[in-house]
Amino acid sequence: MVVFYDPTGVKYGLPTYPYKMAPDGLATVRQLRKRGLRPGGQDITAQILWRRGKRCAYLYRIDLALPKRQATPAQLAALDRALTARRTCPTCEQVKNYYIPRRTGACLDCEPQEVTR
Which residue among 28, 44, 76, 114 has its CA within the 20 to 30 Å range from the CA of 105? Predict the structure, then answer.
């Protein structure tokens, strides 16, 4: 018995398919990303429901999908500066190979050691 099979969309408002039964030509956002695509502003075409209807994945048409946008050199440079700032200790001003923990605000060498009882 197929519970979530509603290709016309009468019962669920959108064409609905059970898990792993979506027709060809439709893909989820993750599947589009894997192909180097994005939905590109198109409306949801259908949905997949599973786990007694508690889980839902929206489907988009592959033929209407657009290529993923590429970051500009300025955006990549800003991202690199931001990530370097997260790795720089404010106390000793050294760049570490890990992110500085926010709870202590210092690298593992500079953070105060707790006394254990």
Answer: 76
Chain-centre distance of CA 82, in angstroms?
20
- The residues that bridge with 60 in the sheet, in sequence order, are 27
Answer yes or no: is 41 within a domain. yes
CA pair distance 27, 60, nearest whole angstrom: 5
Tokens representing residue 72 in the block: 């500009």
Instruction: Give the pLDDT confidence of 61-85 residue by residue, as tens digits.
Output: 999 999 999 999 999 999 999 999 9
Q: How many domains does the chain have?
A: 2
The model's pLDDT over 10-22, given as tens digits with 9 standing for 90+, comes to: 888 899 998 888 8
Helix ranges restricted to H, the chain: 29-34, 73-87
